[in-house]
Design a protein that fits this description.
Number of helices: 8
Strand order of the largest sheet: 3-2-1-4-5-6-7
Bound molecules: NADP nicotinamide-adenine-dinucleotide phosphate
Radius of gyration: 17 Å
Shape: globular
CATH class: Alpha Beta
CATH topology: Rossmann fold
Order of helices and strands: EHEHEHEHEHHEHHE
Strand content: 15-25%
Number of strands: 7
Structural class: alpha/beta
Length: about 230
């Protein structure tokens, strides 16, 4: 049985993704940072394992992989947002966003690769954002960190293709999760109005694409940035 590790799977998109991958036959490692009970309940319900690690902490990620065992599919999902004017963004804000969103990807992928390269098979999916493609006002740090994941995807796809590993990027639009909980009703309604499919996305809308990219069926798909955004990015 293949193993998938989903970072930031205690809620939101990661949680839906862990469920979808378990349904498709993966043993799933549910990574979390703070919400232990939620992660353990989810892991129990899908027959997986919950493992705590702050993805920005390289040593913690190393220990998580030691506990998790070999990982065949990695979903780099854990992320933090920041809504602030660029001029108000402090060096600490900037470093925190990059530490989780970009250093986290580096830590996770480096830890996962030795097994994938040995097996000459692997699936890596990085979760970027429409803002990583188009940029968002008052979200410069977040947009820049998500754009970095797109460059990382394309470079790694070239480097790892000969080892039988696909690397793809999913760019969600506005998805109804805690990450957008601070937005008021009017803002959410206006974001739904700006979406050709006239609604916000559900975590499952993103998870089904990730499940496909982690499957054998997606064997010839690599280096892609694919929107799961209801057309929002057009
Ligand atoms: P969310 O509801 O805020 O959940 C974030 C998840 O990431 C939680 O499971 C959290 O774990 C985990 N996490 C945060 N920091 C972590 C760290 N340092 N180490 C390990 N885990 C960490 O977010 P979401 O909306 O599902 O977003 C998931 C991904 O999709 C993110 O990368 C986000 O940028 C991207 N995205 C989201 C949207 C959207 O509209 N929601 C749009 C585009 C892209 P704990 O709860 O245990 O702390």
């Amino acid at each position: 049985m293949r193993t998938a590790l989903v970072s930031g799977a205690s809620r939101g998109i990661g949680r839906a993704c862990a469920r979808a991958l378990a349904e498709s036959g993966y043993r799933v490692v549910v990574n979390y940072r703070e919400r232990r009970q939620a992660a353990e309940d989810l892991a129990y319900s899908i027959g997986g394992t919950a493992v705590r690690a702050d993805v920005s902490d390289r040593e913690a990620v190393r220990r998580m992989f030691e506990a998790a065992g070999n990982v065949d599919a990695l979903v780099v999902n854990a992320g933090v947002a920041l809504q602030k004017l660029f001029t108000d963004t402090t060096p600490e804000d900037w470093r925190r966003v990059f530490a989780v969103n970009v250093d986290g990807a580096y830590n996770l992928i480096q830890a996962a690769l030795p097994h994938m390269i040995h097996e000459k098979w692997g699936r890596i999916v990085l979760i970027s954002s429409v803002w990583g493609v188009h940029g968002a006002s008052c979200e410069a740090a977040y947009s820049a960190s998500k754009a970095a994941l797109i460059g990382l995807t394309k470079a790694l796809a070239k480097e790892l293709g000969p080892s039988g590993i696909t690397v793809n990027c999913v760019a969600p639009g506005v998805i109804d999760t805690d990450m957008n909980a601070a937005l008021d009703r009017e803002t959410l309604a206006s974001l739904a109005d700006s979406t050709p499919l006239c609604r916000l996305g559900a975590p499952e809308d993103v998870a089904s694409l990730i499940r496909y990219l982690c499957s054998d069926e997606a064997a010839f798909i690599t280096a892609q940035v694919i929107g799961a955004d209801g057309g929002f990015g057009v």
